[in-house]
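Help! Submission page says 'invalid entity' but I think these are all valid:
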Amino acid sequence: MATRTMHLNMGPQHPSTHGVLRVELEIDGETVVKAKPVLGYLHTGIEKTMESKLYYKALPCTDRMDYLNPMGNNLAYSLAVEKMMGIEVPDKVKWIRVILAEVTRLNSHLVWLGTHALDLGAMSMLLYTFREREQIIDIYEACGGQRMMTSYIRIGGLAHEIPKDFESKVRKVLDNFPARIADYETLLTNNEIFINRTKGVAVITAEQAMNLSLTGPMLRGSGVNYDVRKAEPYSGYENFDFNVPLGKNGDAFDRYKLRLEEMKQSMRIIRQALDSIPEGPYRARVPGVVLPPKEDVLHKMESMIFHFKIITEGFKTPLGSVYQAVESPKGELGFYIASDGTNRPRRVRVRPPSFINLQSLATLVEGRMLSDVVCAIGSIDIVLGEVDR
Amino acid sequence: MRDKVSQFLNSRFGDNIIREDDQFGYQTFVIKAEVLSDICRILYETDSMMFKLLSDITSVDWLETKFEEEGRFEVVYTLYSISKNHRIMLRVFLSAEDPTIESLTTLWEGANWLEREVWDLMGIKFTGHPELTKILTADELEGHPLRRDFPLTYEVPQFSWNKEDPPEVIR
């Protein structure tokens, strides 16, 4: 009898692939010989859609990509266009954007933690993390009116003034979270089952990680210190004091500890920012590019004309290509916008951290057990909306 | 670092670097397609450069713009040096008839999917790529959607009341 390997199709409806990812596995007994992710089930051509929209109106496309990180995506796109137009936003806007971006990091890591633990059999974690996430979703709702697709951060500032109870809502999160994270740690960090399922599983070395273009916790889990917030500070991150946690072994357990530590650091940033929000307008005043305040539109002729022109024609950008990277919870999220001098982008390219990190799946699982595939997919932290775009 | 990279590349690849400019804060080199992999390899291996991270590969279609004289397609490589904290972009212009360029998969494993995506959406061939197949679009889709001349169409959805009709595509 000749030995043969077996082909197994995991997904696209498998619950632990976090969406519609399909992995074609070739297995020998319980050992994975080959793993090949098959993508594209959610491809909706967002990059193409953005080409046919005005700069202003392309923004809502961005939060539909990584739906767990809506504010971060809005921020990256807005910063890219602002860099192109040379817009300097008021300090207050920068501070609020930092708070929202970090709150969003908490949101994304919470969902990651819940689903990752659920994949490994710790059902109760999901219920706890979603309970805490609700508070963050409430902040979104108060700001942008929507619970997930906020589009609150706009080119040149924010969509409108921050709500009156913004500070108290964020403070509530800050007060609750340290105890909650301690709870998660007692549930998982010393949990023997969790340790056995994650320690030494899905290992990637620093050289491999860099060679595969990985960023974010996937790269830092192997001990490479690269965080866009420190390397190329944007939106006033240089004013805040925080550490970039690093892993050592590059396994799933290190990445778990790293993400928990990142949540604590995020809270540190939020606390500093919240204590020092400067006074000022919520939007830059750049006639013809950024919408004027509503009260001016009702009472001043010029403002009304600008308002009308921005909505109907948009604004023209200078020739050239701009790249702006931000540190999303998954890694380096970049927007590359090529302009041909008209009021619509010639090309919008998103550097999707999930997509690029997912490429490491084969390296993580080949030669390992079949059950480790679930752990590996979970620890990469993918959002299929961003992978397929 | 900026001057160092500029000197380093100019002394080695003088004529093959068409121009160097600054794109909103990032150092950019427009280079000839033949020397791409040599430049990347030397930037990767030299200790004073250490461009170990291939941040991104993307492409732009400059159909019917003034850039088209240089070449209709532009492929942009973003390299990042973690130890020196410096980011550069390499831009290559390719002709409309035969957009082909060397693959970087021998140097960076991570280039694999990035190049596949560019091939799938923009139709730029990468020679030496181990598996240049579609990655995002459906198998039955013909053409490369991110090209500017890709027809934008609308297909009328079929329900029970119009399922007998032939599928209608509005261009």
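Support: the input was valid. A stray whitespace character was the problem, and the output above is from the cleaned input. The two ends of chain A are 46 Å apart (CA to CA).
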